[in-house]
Amino acid sequence: MSSAWGDYIKISIFGESHGEGIGVVLDNLPAGEAIDMDAVLRQMARRAPGRDRSSTPRKEADTPRILSGFLDGKTTGAPLCAVIENTNTRSADYKNIELLPRPGHSDYPGFVRYGGFNDVRGGGHFSGRLTAPLTFAGAVCRQILLRRGIHIGGHVAAIAGVKDTPFDMVNVSAAQLDALSEIYFPLNDREKETEMREKIEAARLSLDSVGGIAEIAAVGVPAGIGSPMFYGVENVLSSIMYGVPAVKGLEFGIGFGAADLRGSQDNDPYEMVDGEIRTKTNNCGGILGGITTGMPIVVRAVVKPTSSIAQEQDTVDLTKRVNAKLSVHGRHDPCIVPRAVPVLESAMAIGLINLLAERGKL
Amino acid sequence: MSSAWGDYIKISIFGESHGEGIGVVLDNLPAGEAIDMDAVLRQMARRAPGRDRSSTPRKEADTPRILSGFLDGKTTGAPLCAVIENTNTRSADYKNIELLPRPGHSDYPGFVRYGGFNDVRGGGHFSGRLTAPLTFAGAVCRQILLRRGIHIGGHVAAIAGVKDTPFDMVNVSAAQLDALSEIYFPLNDREKETEMREKIEAARLSLDSVGGIAEIAAVGVPAGIGSPMFYGVENVLSSIMYGVPAVKGLEFGIGFGAADLRGSQDNDPYEMVDGEIRTKTNNCGGILGGITTGMPIVVRAVVKPTSSIAQEQDTVDLTKRVNAKLSVHGRHDPCIVPRAVPVLESAMAIGLINLLAERGKL
Amino acid sequence: MSSAWGDYIKISIFGESHGEGIGVVLDNLPAGEAIDMDAVLRQMARRAPGRDRSSTPRKEADTPRILSGFLDGKTTGAPLCAVIENTNTRSADYKNIELLPRPGHSDYPGFVRYGGFNDVRGGGHFSGRLTAPLTFAGAVCRQILLRRGIHIGGHVAAIAGVKDTPFDMVNVSAAQLDALSEIYFPLNDREKETEMREKIEAARLSLDSVGGIAEIAAVGVPAGIGSPMFYGVENVLSSIMYGVPAVKGLEFGIGFGAADLRGSQDNDPYEMVDGEIRTKTNNCGGILGGITTGMPIVVRAVVKPTSSIAQEQDTVDLTKRVNAKLSVHGRHDPCIVPRAVPVLESAMAIGLINLLAERGKL
Amino acid sequence: MSSAWGDYIKISIFGESHGEGIGVVLDNLPAGEAIDMDAVLRQMARRAPGRDRSSTPRKEADTPRILSGFLDGKTTGAPLCAVIENTNTRSADYKNIELLPRPGHSDYPGFVRYGGFNDVRGGGHFSGRLTAPLTFAGAVCRQILLRRGIHIGGHVAAIAGVKDTPFDMVNVSAAQLDALSEIYFPLNDREKETEMREKIEAARLSLDSVGGIAEIAAVGVPAGIGSPMFYGVENVLSSIMYGVPAVKGLEFGIGFGAADLRGSQDNDPYEMVDGEIRTKTNNCGGILGGITTGMPIVVRAVVKPTSSIAQEQDTVDLTKRVNAKLSVHGRHDPCIVPRAVPVLESAMAIGLINLLAERGKL
C-alpha cells in the first residue's frame, strides 16, 4: 500500500503532478456533517504556491470538484471524492531528471521502486502538489472536529535559524489557533516575518533553499483518546504526518529537549483548575502513554530545505552508471515551510478524527 | 486497536506488569527460518533490568516459553507465541497510584481511557516490562533480516547532555552494528560511559532521573523499499517505534538539524563507488520520498527521563478531585536509555521486516 | 470503513448513482504493467445496462477517464484513478422512496445508517451502478493476472430455475474461460438462453423479476496461495464478492452439496498426471484449509431477483410511521444475473491479486 | 497474515495441535466488562470432543488459563490472552501423512504453502483443535453482546440429509436462542436427534463420515449496523466464519433459495408492529445493502463431511511423486456438525462485536 491511510476514516490520494488530475477519496465520513467549502478553499489557498515572491511562480487554480458524498452542503456518508484538474504544466523542464536523479529527491529510490515506470514529470506522485488533496481532506475533517470543540492551528516555528515564539504549551488557546489557521505565513510574533523572508530571499539569490520547523497544536481534544503501544497518539499522528514531503523529524511536547532534563523537570505536575484536572507544565505535549491528557497536543516537524535548487550538483547517470553534473531548472520554492503548515494541520486533523472514531467519539 | 501492529507480519503483544504473564504472537512469519534462541535471549538480557547499579534492582528471569510456531529450531510458518511468566512482583508498592496519578506517567489518561478498570499494578499494560515481548519479537525478526544481509544496531547517543560519537551515516558498517548489538550500554566511544554513569548516579542520589537519546542504524537494506506518502519508511518505523514507552521524538538522518541547513548542504550528492550508486553524505538517513536509497538507515529517538522518581511531586486525588502530594516508592531505574537501545533496535527490525514483505522481498 | 477493500492492492470506490460521477482508486498496483484499455471497456460493456430487451432501458456511456497511475499504456505504480461521469439520470423517478422504503432494497437500513443524509436518488451509493468502477478495477487486475497465467471466467448457472451445464470442476480450461469472459449472457450450453430469456420476459410482463446463480472459475492459480483460518481463499473472496449487490450466498466447489455426501465421496483423491499432482475430483473447488491446491477455483453466487419491481408492495411511511403502499417506477432490469457475471469475475480478480501479493507472487 | 482477524476488536489465534499450547489474544476489548468464566467454559465444552459416541474419543481438558486483560472478574481493556496447554497427544498416529497427503485435508496445499516446514502432527495449525481458542474468544464477545441485548444461537439444520426444523426467520426469539446455545447437539425438533445419530453411526461403521448444515441466528442487533459494498454484514461475517474448518458455503436469509423466487416473493414487505418497523418475511436474513434491518440475522453454513476417514484412499507420495494408497488412522469424529455450531456462533459473535464497534455502538 502507499497513498491510502486510516483505520476508521480512510483517505486514498491519487494523482501525479503532470497527469490528468489529482484528488482524494474520503471513506466512512460521518453523514450529515455540514462542510463550508469556502473554508476548505481558504485552507487550500494557504498551501497553494504563488502566494508571494518567495514561493514558486507556478499559478494553480486548485479548485476541487466534488464528485460524490456531498449533497445540499452536507456529507452523505458515502465516500467523498474531490478531483483537481492539472493545468499549467510545463513538462519540458524535467526532461533530464529521468537519467540524472536530483540529490535530495525521490528520483533515484523511486526509479528503483517502480522499475523506471513511474511518471517523473514534475515529481509525479512524489510531487508536493499531492499535498493539495491532503489539505482538502484535512480541511473537511477539521470542520467536523471543530463541531466537536477541537481547534487545530500552527505556525512557522523557525526558518533558516530564525525562530518564532513557540506555543505556550499550557495556555495556547482555541482563538489563537483559529486566527493562525486562517492566514498565510502564520507566526506568533509577526515581527519575525521580515527576517525570515530575508533569509529566504538570500537563499533564492544564491540559487539555494532553506529549511525550518513547523509547530502544530490542537486544543479541545478530550482526555482518554489513544491507546498504549501501537495506537498511541504519537504513533498515529506520525504515521500520517511523515506523509508530508520533506518532513524528516517529529517531536511531541518538549521532544528532544527532554534528553537534557531530569525527571523532576520533565514530569508535568497535576493540579485542579476550576474543577478540571490540568497539568502545570505540558512537556508531554498532551500525550502520556499514547493517550491524551486533555491538555493541548503539540507537535513540531522539521521541514528540510527544498531539494530542487538551481546550483550545479553532483549526481550519476542512471543509464551509463557514471558520475555526472546536474542543474535543476524549473519553478521551485526556496522555502516551503509556510506552505507546509496548513498541510501538517490537515494531516493532524485526519489523524485526530481517526483517533476519535477509534474511541467511538465521533 | 492498541497492542497489535503490522500489515504483513503482525505482532500482538499482551500482558500486564503484575498479571499472570506477558508475551507476544507473531503472525505470518516465513516458514523454515532457523532461529537461534540463545541469540534471542541475549537481546532480551540487554533489555532486562538489574544489569548494573544504575538500573532497577528488580531481577527478572524473563525466559520466554515458546508455545507454537517453532519446531526443530525453525519457524513452522504458523503463529509463533512466546509467553513470559510474571514472578517477583511486589504490588503493594503501587497502592496509592490508583487515586494519585504519577506525573509523567500514563496513570491519569489511562484512568480516563479505561474507566478505572485497567490493572494499575506496576503500570499494568503500560509498564516498560511490556518491552520484553517486543524485544523477543524483534530478536526473532532481526535473525530473519540478518539472513538477508540486513544488520541492525544502536548506541546510547546521549545521556543527560553527555554525548557519544554519533554514527558516521555514510560509513557505519555491519561489523560495527553487530558488535554494538551484543552488548549492554553500547557506545561508539567507550570512554563516555564513566561520565554518563556519573550523571545517572548523581540523579539517583537526588531521587531523580535523567533522559537521553538512542541512535539506531540498519545497513544492508536494499534501495527501493518503502512507498511515497503513507507507507514510507519513516511512517512505518515511527508508527512502531513510538510504541516504546518514553519516546517523545524521532528524527531520521540529520533530522532537526536540517532546519538550519541550506539545500546545497542538506542534499546528498550521488556518486558511483565500485559500480554502486551511493551518496557522498547521508543527511536523509537512507530514505528519500519514503523509499530507501540503499545507504544506511539512521534514526534517533529521544527517551525522556524516567517518570517514576522518589521526590515528592504535585498531583491530584482522582476521587476527591483536590490537589495532593505524591512520593513514588518502589524500584525504578534512574535512566532507561541503555535498556531502550535493544528495544528500539527490535522495533526497527519488526518495522523493516514488514517493509520488505510489502515489496515481496522476504 | 465501507467502500475500500484490500490489504495489498487496495481499491477505494466512490460515487452515487445520480451524483457528479463515480469511480475507483487502485492503490499499490505493480508498476510497468501494460493494460489494454479496449479490453477493459469490453468488460465494462458486459456489465452495462441496455444490452438487450431484458435489461434496463437506461443507456450509459460509461467510458472511464483515467486521471492517474497510467502512462504510455502502462501502470506507473502510483494510484490509478478512473472516473465515470454521471449523465442520463432521471431523479424524479425516485421521489417517493425517501419516505416509503422499497422492500428488498437498502432504503430503510440505509436511512437508519446514514440518519437520512444519504443520497437516495437512484439508490445513491447503494446503486448497482457502483459495480461499474468495480468492474473497471477487476478488468485491470485480471490483465495482470493473465500475464501470470491466471484465467477467470464465469457463466449464468441458473435463472428462474433454468439451469446451464455447470463447470467441469476438474477440466474447466483457460480457453473455455477466456471465451466466456468476452461475451454477454455467457453460457456453457447456449441452447439454454432462449428458455432463460422467456422466464425473464414472463417476469417482466408480470411487473416482476427473477433471480439466479452465477458460477465463476479461475484456472492457473498455483498451489500454496492463501492461509489457514482468516486469510483463506474463501474468506478473502467472499469478503469482496459480497460487495456485489444482490448476492446472498456463496459456495465453493460442491458447496452446499457436501451436506449430503459422505467423506469418501467428498474427499478429492490425489493422482499424478504428467508429473503434476492433481485431484481426480474437485469437490473442494480448488481450496483446502484456505489454501489453493492448484486445481480450478470454483465459486457459485446466488443473485436474488431484482428488488425494484413495478407491482404494488406493502411498505411503511418512515415519517408518519404508518403502513403504506408503494409502486416502484423507473427503469429496472427484471434480471441482473447475466450482468452480475462480469462483476463477480472482477471481484474475484481483485481478490486473487491480493492473495497472490500476500504470498509475494506478483 | 493468517490467524489474526478484526479491524476494531482483533483476535490473534496461535498454536498447533500437538505443540506446547494453543490460545488467543483479544486486543481492544472494552474495559470493565464482567465475564462469567463458567459460561465461557460451557461454550468450550459444547465444542470439545468426546461428548458422545459419535465424536472422537480424544479427551481434552481444555481449561484456558487467562494470562492478562482480566482482573476481579472484569476486562481491564488491555489485551486478554488465554492459553490452553496441549496434553493427551499421540503424534505417532500421524506419521505417514508427511509424505502421503490425506484427501480433503490441507496436507498438500499446506506442504506447498509452508515449504514442508509446518508442524503436521495432528494437523498442526490447521487442526480443528484451533477452534477451541476461537470459541473462547467468541464466548467472551457474546457476553458483551448479551449485555447490549444481542442473543446468538444455532442448531444442527441438517446431517446426512436429515433436516431439523429451520428457524422461523421472522419470529426466532432470544429465549429460543439462549436455550439452544447452552446445549450439545442443539435442535429445534429434538426428535430428529435419533435419526441423525443413526446416520452418523452408520457412517462410522462404514469407516466413513457425514456432513451437514449449521444454522446460526442473532436477534437484538439494531437496524443500521454495517455498510454498503465491502463492510457489509455478509462480508464481515463470512470473512471470519470461513475460518471455521470444513465450512465450504455460507448463505444469508433464504440464500440460494432466492435463485428460484420472483422479486415479489423474495422482497420482504414492511409493516408497523407496535410502533416498530418490521418486515413480514425475512428472506434477506436481516441484512439489506450490507446493513442490518433490525430483524433476526440468519446464516447457514455447510460443514463438509470429516476428511479423516479410515477407508483406504488414493493419494500420492510427495517425495517420490508417484501414486499411493493411504489409510488414515487415529481418532476422528465421523460428524463434526454439532460441535461446529458453537464455533460458528462464536465466529458470528466476534464478527458482530466488530460491526457494532465500527458504528461506535459498543
Automatic annotation (TrEMBL), chains A, B, C, D:
Cofactor mode of binding and number, as noted: Reduced FMN (FMNH(2)).
Binding locations of FMN: H125, F126, S127, G289, K304, P305, T306, S307, S308, R331
GO cellular component, as recorded: cytosol
Catalytic activity reported: 5-O-(1-carboxyvinyl)-3-phosphoshikimate = chorismate + phosphate
Pfam families: Chorismate_synt
Sorted UniProt keywords: Amino-acid biosynthesis, Aromatic amino acid biosynthesis, FAD, Flavoprotein, FMN, Lyase, NADP
Binding site for NADP(+): R47, R53
Region entry Disordered, spans: 46-65
Compositionally biased region (Basic and acidic residues): 49-63
Pathway(s) it belongs to: Metabolic intermediate biosynthesis; chorismate biosynthesis; chorismate from D-erythrose 4-phosphate and phosphoenolpyruvate: step 7/7
Cofactors demanded by this protein: FMNH2
PROSITE patterns linked: CHORISMATE_SYNTHASE_2, CHORISMATE_SYNTHASE_3
EC class name: lyase
Keyword presence, Lyase: yes
MF terms (GO), sorted A to Z: chorismate synthase activity; FMN binding
Domain of life: Bacteria
Gene Ontology BP term (one): chorismate biosynthetic process
EC numbers, comma separated: 4.2.3.5
HAMAP family in alphabetical order: Chorismate_synth
Annotated function: This reaction introduces a second double bond into the aromatic ring system.
Subunit structure, interactors included: Homotetramer.
Family per similarity comment: Belongs to the chorismate synthase family.
Protein name (Swiss-Prot/TrEMBL): Chorismate synthase
Organism of derivation: Candidatus Gallacutalibacter pullicola
Gene designation: aroC
